[in-house]
């Protein structure tokens, strides 16, 4: 009974409270009471656009700003118009945002505003910035000089490395390592370079190193160059200290005088090119008609040897020959000899000469080996090189003092990029080296191939340079310089005289 009465009293009291609240609402004009409205964020200030970078073909910019009062987040707006027409929008809860995949070398404008719930603050002032330009693709490096420094086991080779200027680059990054690749597992040396030339010291003599370069600027890096590889000068091929050492300036030229058209027009120009090369020894290949012409029209030179000379042979069997400058050399009578290989335009001739200034004897040869790119041809060139060396050895095996220093020049139809560089392998076993590998100075770009194929734009092979026209120096000789003798202007050859370019190598004998 008491419980029922108490419950009724509490119910009446609650009803009175509800009625009082209703009156209060009525007095307030029936206003609706809901959740509190969010406060408007303050305007964003001090917007900065920083950290321009490039990645591949796009750019990125980072936008930063100061904290805005009452903001729980921010919106970043950007447009290519300073009026912020059709802006793109991104949201963030932090006070920075990196905007990616922008076009390079384009001006972008930015605004930032604070956000609190659904309430947006006023936009900031417009801030604009130009995106960076991509650093260009780097061209291949090449070596302009090399020298051996130090003695004994402390000897090292120093290279002067060069590359073409890269558009957009303010500096460069040069990578190199011992071996035939650069960007592979293993130790890679990286150097920051301010210009387009680097001096690389401390390399092991007689080893292969490979190089790559890429441009960089404050925004990032460009693409790396093609790989270029270099065999470093062995310690035993440093320059001789003696000022009286014998110097042999050798040229080699596949004139293609019979297989290629227009010889009668080319002939006097070939003669003039040879005279301008200023060499003491000139080895000629594919030179049946050229030999006849030069024998009559190359003043100051003597034909010293020719394959098949004086023999009634089929046409082109006599297409290798060698000329020496009379002011430099005397031909030793009865020493001219030769060998012919199966293909009628291939073979070699050699002769012994005496240097007029030093009295030193040497043997010089003009060589033309089998052409072709297959494994069988590689092996055949290896065999032909062995045959040639065997014939020359046989000629001197009973001579007092043995064979004089031997220099071989010609079209070997092989190069380091081949799967098996047979002639080089065979000759290196006899301590010869390709003048291209060991030269102290490179007076034309090493990637510029000696076999032009009549193309006015130089055929370029970045890794090694495809040089089938070669001069091999004997053991211990110092190769002073190497170059392809082909006039150029504006990146094009201006006077091609054959499908090969002549090569000039200067050798200092010990």
From TrEMBL:
<keyword id="KW-0326">Glycosidase</keyword>
<keyword id="KW-0624">Polysaccharide degradation</keyword>
<dbReference type="InterPro" id="IPR003961">
    <property type="entry name" value="FN3_dom"/>
</dbReference>
<dbReference type="Pfam" id="PF00041">
    <property type="entry name" value="fn3"/>
</dbReference>
<keyword id="KW-0119">Carbohydrate metabolism</keyword>
<feature type="signal peptide">
    <location>
        <begin position="1"/>
        <end position="38"/>
    </location>
</feature>
<protein>
    <submittedName>
        <fullName>Fibronectin type III domain-containing protein</fullName>
    </submittedName>
</protein>
<dbReference type="InterPro" id="IPR013783">
    <property type="entry name" value="Ig-like_fold"/>
</dbReference>
<keyword id="KW-0378">Hydrolase</keyword>
<keyword id="KW-0732">Signal</keyword>
<dbReference type="InterPro" id="IPR036116">
    <property type="entry name" value="FN3_sf"/>
</dbReference>
<feature type="domain" description="Fibronectin type-III">
    <location>
        <begin position="43"/>
        <end position="134"/>
    </location>
</feature>
<dbReference type="InterPro" id="IPR036691">
    <property type="entry name" value="Endo/exonu/phosph_ase_sf"/>
</dbReference>
<dbReference type="InterPro" id="IPR050617">
    <property type="entry name" value="E3_ligase_FN3/SPRY"/>
</dbReference>
<feature type="domain" description="Fibronectin type-III">
    <location>
        <begin position="144"/>
        <end position="236"/>
    </location>
</feature>
């Amino acid at each position: 009974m008491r419980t029922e009465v108490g419950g009724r009293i509490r119910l009446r009291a609650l009803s009175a409270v509800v009625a009082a609240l209703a009156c209060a609402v009525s007095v307030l004009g029936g206003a609706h009471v809901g959740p509190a409205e969010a406060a408007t964020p303050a305007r964003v200030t001090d917007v900065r656009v920083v950290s321009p970078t490039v990645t591949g073909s796009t750019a990125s910019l980072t936008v930063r700003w100061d904290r805005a009062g009452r903001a729980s987040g921010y919106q970043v707006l950007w447009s290519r118009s300073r009026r912020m027409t059709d802006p793109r929008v991104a949201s963030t809860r932090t006070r920075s945002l990196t905007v990616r995949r922008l076009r390079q070398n384009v001006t972008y404008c930015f605004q930032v505003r604070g956000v609190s719930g659904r309430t947006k603050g006023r936009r900031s002032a417009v801030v604009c910035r130009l995106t960076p330009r991509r650093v260009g693709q780097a061209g291949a490096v090449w070596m302009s000089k090399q020298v051996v420094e130090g003695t004994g086991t402390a000897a090292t080779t120093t290279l002067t490395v060069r590359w073409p200027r890269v558009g957009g680059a303010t500096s460069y990054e040069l990578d190199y390592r011992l071996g035939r690749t650069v960007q592979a597992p293993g130790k890679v040396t990286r150097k920051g370079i301010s210009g387009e030339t680097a001096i690389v010291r401390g390399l092991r003599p007689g080893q292969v190193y490979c190089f790559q370069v890429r441009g960089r600027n404050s925004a990032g890096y460009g693409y790396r160059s093609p790989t270029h590889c270099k065999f470093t000068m062995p310690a035993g091929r440093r320059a001789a200290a003696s000022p009286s050492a014998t110097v042999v300036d050798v040229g080699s030229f596949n004139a293609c005088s019979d297989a290629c058209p227009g010889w009668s027009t080319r002939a006097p120009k070939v003669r003039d090119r040879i005279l301008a090369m200023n060499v003491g020894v000139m080895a000629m290949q594919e030179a049946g008609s050229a030999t006849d012409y030069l024998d009559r029209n190359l003043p100051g030179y003597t034909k010293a040897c020719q394959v098949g000379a004086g023999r009634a042979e089929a046409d082109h069997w006599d297409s290798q020959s060698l000329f020496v400058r009379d002011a430099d050399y005397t031909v030793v009578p009865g020493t001219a000899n030769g060998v012919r290989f199966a293909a009628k335009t291939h073979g070699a001739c050699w002769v012994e000469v005496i240097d007029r200034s030093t009295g030193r004897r040497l043997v010089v040869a003009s060589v033309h080996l089998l052409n072709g790119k297959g494994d069988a041809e590689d092996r055949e060139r290896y065999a032909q090189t062995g045959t040639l060396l065997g014939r020359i050895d046989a000629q001197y095996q009973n001579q007092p003092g043995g064979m004089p220093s031997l220099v071989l020049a010609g079209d070997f139809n092989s190069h380091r990029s081949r799967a098996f560089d047979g002639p080089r392998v065979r000759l290196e076993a006899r301590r010869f080296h390709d003048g291209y590998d060991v030269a102290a100075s490179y007076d034309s770009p090493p990637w510029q191939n000696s076999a032009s194929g009549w193309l006015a734009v130089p055929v370029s092979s970045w890794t090694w340079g495809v040089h089938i026209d070669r001069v091999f120096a004997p053991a211990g000789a110092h190769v002073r310089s190497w170059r392809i003798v082909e006039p150029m202007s504006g990146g094009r050859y201006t006077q091609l005289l054959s499908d090969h370019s002549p090569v000039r190598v200067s050798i200092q004998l010990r």
